[in-house]
Design brief:
This protein is 41% helix and 16% strand. With 348 residues, the protein is of the alpha/beta class. The relative contact order is 0.13.
């Protein structure tokens, strides 16, 4: 099932869209969105009211198909998070909280088909950090093992005071946080060719990481916070030298940050979804081999089709480092959650 008896393959970046009908979508919005139209033959469509959003396959909502795919690909475990279309950040907060509770219950049900293989991550109404804390606490008590958030809420980045308070609350609960880019900036200039995904996602993630660094937010956040950025941290690794240079040369860059950006790379993780062994080599050099975890963006078409292929092809990694990237780092990142899964399994 894995690369070998001693190597676990753990994919931290996978998505689910449980079967949610249009009437159920009205929990969030009167027009009934988002919802999933299942068309038969393993095909479906993510819907926004009457509008078709994106065609999808059954692995997005069928746990048995997912586990079969994992077996075929040699993946031992996945962290399962909602599709960003489901976040609901534009809704009235109390309504969004009800929606998140509903979605979180569906994610738990999905993962219950293979509890030793599928690790559920909850979503929260991040537009109201206090409510988000309450939803996260309920979700953790119900069995969720981490939190999946978007990288911003409107014009509020992750260094927003309320959002950092939520992140600190996650640290207190022992919940790892997976931050995913969404609602990409500059959308009016990125028409066609999936440019929001190709250019917008890396920019969004770079913005989030630098925002936490240069605002001084990492100085305020507890070091116990386990935070991972999807898509390899976006353009962050390639542009870190530019950010460090600016911090050293301009007081307006370092006004709120006592240390240069490169001194904060030990405060977060990234996934490996960069799709090029040369890019992954740079990412490992910047982050260190203990801060990069396998992430594929399964089951979407732009994800890594052969999970771990980029890691296996990455030059200069020894066997121990490759094992860390394929699964060892993820096991450590989710360690308290995995311990709880094991304990529950022994008592059931």
């Amino acid at each position: 099932m894995s690369d070998g008896a001693s190597v676990t393959v753990f994919d931290v970046h996978t998505h689910v869209f449980p079967v949610i009908g249009r009437d159920e979508g009205r929990i969030l919005a009167d027009e009934g969105q988002p919802w999933l139209r299942v068309d038969g033959g393993g095909a479906g469509m993510m819907m926004c009211g009457d509008a078709e959003y994106r065609p999808v396959g059954e692995a997005l909502w069928d746990a048995a198909r997912r586990v079969a795919d994992m077996d075929a690909a040699g993946v031992d475990r996945q962290a399962v998070s909602s599709t960003p279309l489901m976040f609901g950040y534009a809704a009235e907060p109390s309504r969004a909280a009800d929606w998140c509770d509903f979605v979180n219950d569906r994610i738990l049900a999905f993962c219950s088909d293979a509890p030793d293989r599928l690790l559920p991550l909850c979503q929260v109404p991040l537009q109201d950090p206090q409510l988000a804390c309450e939803v996260a606490k309920r979700a953790a008590a119900a069995g969720h093992r981490g939190v999946h958030i978007g990288n911003h809420v409107g014009d509020r980045n992750l260094d927003d005071e309320g959002i950092t308070a939520f992140l600190a609350h996650c640290a207190e609960l022992g919940l790892p946080v997976l931050a995913h880019p969404w609602d990409m900036l500059g959308a009016d200039r990125m028409r066609g060719h999936m440019l929001p995904w190709l250019a917008g996602m890396p920019a969004e993630t770079q913005l989030s990481i630098l925002g936490l660094m240069l605002s001084g937010a990492f100085e305020r956040l507890p070091e116990s916070l386990r935070l991972c950025f999807c898509h390899g941290g976006g353009s962050f690794a390639f542009l870190l030298g530019r950010a460090d240079n600016a911090w050293h040369r301009r007081d307006i860059v370092r006004a709120d940050s006592p240390r240069p950006p490169s001194e904060y790379v030990g405060r977060f993780h990234v996934d490996s979804a960069v799709f090029d062994p040369r890019a992954l080599r740079l990412l490992v050099d910047v982050m260190g081999p203990e801060r990069v975890m396998l992430g594929t963006d399964y089951p979407f078409p732009l994800g890594e089709k052969d999970p771990g292929a980029t890691i296996r092809a990455c030059p200069g990694l020894d066997d121990a480092e490759r094992a860390l990237l394929l699964g060892g780092n993820a096991e450590a990142f989710f360690a308290p959650a995995l311990d709880l899964v094991t304990t529950e399994g022994m008592t059931q």
